[in-house]
UniProtKB/TrEMBL annotation:
Protein name: Ribosome maturation factor RimP
InterPro entries tied to this protein: Ribosome_maturation_RimP (IPR003728), RimP_C (IPR028998), RimP_C_sf (IPR036847), RimP_N (IPR028989), RimP_N_sf (IPR035956)
Biological processes per GO annotation: ribosomal small subunit assembly; translation
Organism the protein comes from: Eisenbergiella tayi
UniProt keyword annotation of Cytoplasm present: yes
Domain (Ribosome maturation factor RimP N-terminal) ranges: 14-85
Primary gene name: rimP
Protein family per UniProt: Belongs to the RimP family.
Gene3D superfamilies: Ribosome maturation factor RimP, C-terminal domain, RimP-like superfamily, N-terminal
């Protein structure tokens, strides 16, 4: 397991009781290096959407817990936020909640000279994702998908 994955998993374990106490769910945890800085990002959510107070409360409690347990060797910046409008659908639980929603899907390699597709998320399994575009239903292997996120219209 990569260092990043190990930090993400351990952080998620520490965050679980904090999220529950604050009435939010963990959407995702990321530990990644951007430039010379390491970022530990926790994305939280709840049905009516999270507000700044939720983020502050969770951030303060998580920061204290991380200081107490002190398992991350690098200096890092902690950020707690909502996954936002164009949220990335990384996990099966994200896809499950988004069935019937409009999604944007980006491929690693072009298919029919196109890398980006938009459509309604119809179904998915361990190997594939099916979306309904304006023309037809399209099946994509999960291994060829670089990114799936909720589409948002303004």
């Amino acid at each position: 397991m990569s260092k990043g994955k190990a930090v993400e998993n351990r952080t998620e374990e520490l965050l679980a009781p904090i999220a529950e106490e604050n009435g939010v769910e963990i959407y995702d945890v990321e530990y990644l290096k951007e430039g010379s800085d390491w970022y530990l990002r926790a994305y939280i959510d709840k049905p009516e959407g999270v507000n700044i107070q939720d983020c502050e409360n969770v951030s303060r409690a998580l920061s204290d817990k991380l200081d107490e347990v002190d398992f991350i060797d690098d200096a890092y910046i902690l950020e707690v936020s909502s996954p936002g409008l164009g949220r990335t659908l990384k996990k099966d639980k994200h896809l499950e909640k988004s069935l019937g929603e409009e999604v944007e899907l980006r491929l690693y390699k072009p298919r029919d000279k196109q890398k980006e597709f938009t459509g309604i998320l119809k179904s998915f399994d361990a190997d594939s994702v099916i979306i309904e575009t304006e023309e037809e239903e399209k099946v994509f292997a999960r291994s060829e998908i670089a990114l799936i996120r909720l589409a948002f219209d303004f």
